[in-house]
Amino acid sequence: MADLYRLVYYSRNRVADGPEALDTAISSILEASRRNNARDNVTGALMFNSGCFAQVLEGRREAIEDVFERIQQDERHGDVSLLAFEPASRRAFANWSMGFVGASVHETMRYSGTAEASGFDPSRMTGDALFETLVRLAIEEEKA
Amino acid sequence: MRHGLTPPRHDPDRAAANGSPTGSDQALFGDPLRSASGPRPTALPEMATAVIILNEDREIEYVNASAEALFAGVDPIGCTMEALLTSCGARGVEAARLSSAADEPITCTRVHLADSRVLDCEVRPLSNGGFVLSLDDVTDHVRSAELANRDPLTGLANRTLFHHQLLDRLEVVKRNSGRVAILLIDLDRFKAINDTLGHPLGDALLRKVSARLTGALRDEDVAARLGGDEFGVIQSAAEQPDAAELLAARLVDLIGRTYVLEGHTIHIGATIGVTVAPRDGLDADVLLKNADLALYQAKAAGKGTFRVYETGMTERIQARRLLEIDLRRALALKQFDVVYQPQVDIATGAISGFEALIRWQHPVRGPVSPGEFIPAAEEIGIISAVSEWVLRTACREAMSWPGDISVAVNLSPVQFRNGRLLEVVTSALSATGLPASRLELEITEGALLENSDAVLAVLRSLRALGIRISMDDFGTGYSSLSYLQKFPLDKIKIDRSFIRNIDHEPDRLHLVRAIAALAKGLGMKTTAEGVETLAELQCVRSEGCTEVQGYFTGRPVPAREAAALLSSGVQGSSSREND
Ligand SMILES: Cc1cc2nc3c(=O)[nH]c(=O)nc-3n(C[C@H](O)[C@H](O)[C@H](O)COP(=O)(O)O)c2cc1C
After folding, report:
1. Taking the domain B151-311, which CATH number applies?
2. Pocket around ligand 1: residues whose beta carbon is below 6 Å from it?
3. Quick check: ipTM above 0.85?
4. What integer pLDDT is reported at residue B1 of this predicted model?
5. Residues contacting residue A123 through CB under 8 Å, at least 6 positions apart
6. pTM for this structure?
7. CATH node for B3-143
């Protein structure tokens, strides 16, 4: 696709504590994402660990700019650090309107425990590394 | 003769009818009940004004040609007015008001239809119990009035409407003691973006800013674009200034978040001044002046923040203006000095270089802290001249030091903007004879935010000369890790706020470890700034920092003492540790 762009960022979770509030927030984020992204031909993956979101978005440049503008205004997170925003040669998440890494919050919590122990912390990764990680995790998810 | 054929428009009877709602209706319209079967007066069907006649049950009995044209496609006969209007998308309240008009002699209502037409409707009761409605299409008139009140680029209110709205709100405050806050918002760095990336992109950015602004407001708040990159908000709320402070903090955060626009990543900031009525006054001009003073204070505090007006602000601003006057003269009067703080290699304990730091000694004020006068120098536009002076002085004085001892000089973001940086640096080197390899330039993230491509080109040229570049105060700004990849840097200087008490703060320890590891991976050195104790030094050493700078390893000293430090061999951390 001409004009394909990829955007990678991570941000700090600002949803109130408690698994229920998080569950609700993440379901509603994913629901809106899948609905809007399918419409706008945007694909990508979202990952969550107890403190951070990390997301890859790919699609036409204008579409990415529009969805990122909405995401920027979302009060459920803050301190958004943009790691990459650049042309891409092909989609890495072609089949995902918004893949979520970690099937439920509980699983994500469990996952993030091991992830933190293994040193996973999006704030310490470069855009490329974070992107690679999300691709790898999404592939594992798909296999599971 | 035409005169005889056309219904005379200036018939004295009609003029009278216009002035008297009930008396002469029949002279104009005939008796509607009877005329349902009988002939209409000749004037009515052809009148430019749309006319509708209702019977006693408020059902439409007659429409003239103009009225028919207004509601083309609908057969109105037998409907109520409310049904007719709501079928055209009029707001319920407006339609209801129109059809319940009974007791007042004349009711005028403005009705907004779904196709965005605006009608002015006038209802008059007839003596026979029916009603006559005249409808005027005022769409064009209303739209041009609205346009006159709107900023065409963003659709926000313009300065005129802002002022009117403010006067209206202040009237309410005077009557029932509510509270109103005014926020004046200035965008930081917008001009630079507009200049370097072009006006169309600047315009698109302003639209995004105004969308973020309105997104954070309630319906009853007023948002206006007051000038190029200046916005205003009027917020009515019971709890003031609390509500305004919350809003201001939210806007600073929201507007300051990164934008992606036409493939560019853009960082701008918002600085806000707040004032509250009736606390700070009830006069619009006084309040706007207060908000402006508060805005000025917020800018003086380093931008990207807000300030609420306080009494005494005028005095403080007066003091700041006096400081600015003194500051303008300081260079010419030779009141500045440069001192040098040792940078120590952690592995060897030897001094590897010095950072040049400016000092201002004023004959009356005494020493003025750089934290106070550097922002002022930026604000009044003399920072480039001051920085250039420091650079030349540092290069010259470093020549008196032995060997390969380097000197680090701070650059201001402004210097990247004016396009002369490369020339200034090369001329300082050639005038003093200092080898480029002994000069290190310290930049802050602020410099990298604007127009990265131009900055990147300058940094590359500087490095091509053999000059080293370090990132100062790392961790205090956007700290976007992408900068570390994108820009050619030799060193990261970790801000002192992460070093203080690092031996008691595991969070800081982890952060410093992560930054040091990242820097090592990218082939950069790391300096821990502000090391004050042995315990802090041991921590940053074990976390992998390669250099330290701070009171523990040496305070800033004049150039001559710096030279003495080097020759006495009393150097660095290991000797201190062994004491
Ligand atoms: C971490 C995070 C990621 C999000 N990702 C997306 C996304 O990929 N697509 C999307 O449309 N909205 C996303 N949102 C939600 C948007 O901020 C916004 O709520 C949503 O687009 C509004 O859509 P609606 O108007 O259709 O309800 C995300 C929000 C958060 C906090």
Report:
1. 3.30.70.270
2. A 29, 32-33, 36-37, 46, 53, 55, 57, 67, 70-71, 74, 76-77, 98
3. no
4. 39
5. A10, A52, A81, B481, B514
6. 0.63
7. 3.30.450.20
The answer to whether the beta carbons of residues B442 and B355 sit under 8 Å apart is yes
Q: Encoding tokens for residue B49?
A: 């004004």
Half-sphere exposure of A113 (CA within 13 A, CB side): 5
Q: Which residue has the higher pLDDT, A26 or A100?
A: A26
Residue B131's pLDDT is what?
A: 85
Query: Taking a C-beta distance cutoff of 8 angstroms, is the pair A98, A30 a contact?
Result: yes
Instruction: Please give the pLDDT value at position B506.
Output: 86
Looking up tokens 């091509």, which residue turns up?
B464
Give Cα separations from B84 to B75, B81, B114 (angstroms).
9, 5, 13
> Domain with A105 in it: what CATH number?
3.30.70.100
Nearest residue of B to residue A124, measured between CA atoms? B514
Angstrom distance (rounded) from CA A143 to CA B120: 66
Whose CA is closest to A14, among A59, A71, A78?
A: A78
Nearest-CA distance B115 → chain A (Å): 28
Domain that holds residue A30: 4-143
> Which chain B residues are closer than 8 Å to A121 by Cβ?
514
Superfamily of domain B342-577 in the CATH hierarchy:
EAL domain (3.20.20.450)
Contact in structure between B297 and B314 (CB atoms under 8 Å): no
Task: Please provide the distance, in angstroms rounded to a whole number, between the alpha carbons at the two ends of chain A.
Answer: 30
SS3 B569: coil
List, for chain B, all residue ranges whose pLDDT scores fall below the cut of 50: 1-39, 570-579
| Residue pointed to by tokens 């509708």 | B52
- What proportions of chain A, in percent to the nearest 5, are helix, strand and coil? 45, 30, 25
3-state secondary structure of B12: helix
Please give the pLDDT value at position B96.
Answer: 64
For residues B166 and A47, what is the distance between their CA atoms, to the nearest angstrom? 46
> Where do the CATH 3.30.450.20 domains begin and end in chain B?
3-143
Rounded CA-CA distance A71/A13 in Å is 13
Rg, C-alpha atoms of chain A: 14
How many domains in chain A?
1
